[in-house]
Amino acid sequence: MSLSIKDDEIDIVIGALRPDLTSFMNEWRTIFSRFHLIIVKDPDLKEELKIPEGFNLDVYKKPDIDRVVGTSTSTIFSGYSCRYFGYLVSRKKYIISVDDDCYPAKDNKGILVDAVAQHITNLTTPATPFFFNTLYDPFTEGADFVRGYPFSLRSGVQCALSCGLWLNLADYDAPTQALKPEERNSRYVDAVLTVPARTLMPISGINIAFNREVIGPALLPSLRLGGEGKFRWETMEDIWSGMCVKVVCDHLGLGVKTGMPYVWRNDRGDAIASLRKEWEGVKLMEEVVPFFQSVRLSREATTTEDCVAEVANVVKEQLESKDPMFARAAKAMVDWVKLWKSVGSSTSSPGA
């Protein structure tokens, strides 16, 4: 991990969708025990959480969420969206977000992967979104800029978002997973890439890290499908959020990296049972991707909050007539910016 980054500049956010976190926490103990953890219990989860001792953590439950944002607003943090409450109340510069069905992975040599250290390395070394380097990330050990790479672009730009990958269960949609039920990702590729500017990607919140001070408000819960469930296949909120944050990063001249670090992801849910619920999202992407590809923000949008507000306005103008859920998403984006500003530094610890 970068020597310039201190452990107390990092929060690890975990959304708890299951009650027993014992095995999850113990598997991560050697890595997580160095940092402050924010665990956000899914407000719809009725059982009490089981968390082993020996960690520096704050746990937020439904009463804490209601107290911070109000009962009328707290509903947006149900299911996988509970992680966003952790982003909201953190006061650290860097956030690492890991789902509770993910465990530490091992590299090709059988060595345990320190996902936090790799994410911080990604965030604290420049990104190169304006010209593609064919030898992966030129700032990693053993790599550099290839012949023909303009020297004027070699200083790169600030990296604001690091998107890690995972072994075992790949992030397929329900139709693909249903057609390939036994397929697993076993390839550990020792590489990090900068995603080129003006290129979208379906960012997943399963294993990411970001500079909260720079792009925090752009990672937001807003688009929710009708009848959305509790399984990854049935959710679209992080994909929408990911495209929003990528548009913001492109506009502000910030970088996004993908690749290492890996985590090991366990199976959860039934792809066949989720097919009907997710089909709405599969169709939706045919509208959403061209929209985000066309979005251009004004010069007046100089902060992340400004950018999110402008994207929300364009969503309302161009997509509202296609489906009411887009109007709800636009309003949720505007409300999120207001919430981000209002919660500010006034948030107290859980139970206060």
TrEMBL record:
InterPro entries: RGP, RGP_fam
Enzyme Commission number(s): 5.4.99.30
Reaction(s) the record says it catalyses: UDP-beta-L-arabinofuranose = UDP-beta-L-arabinopyranose
Subcellular location: Golgi apparatus
Pfam families: RGP (PF03214)
Key words, A-Z: Cell wall biogenesis/degradation, Glycoprotein, Golgi apparatus
Statement: the UniProt record of this protein carries the keyword Signal: no
The protein's enzyme class: isomerase
Family indicated by similarity: Belongs to the RGP family.
Entry function: Probable UDP-L-arabinose mutase involved in the biosynthesis of cell wall non-cellulosic polysaccharides.
Protein name: UDP-arabinopyranose mutase
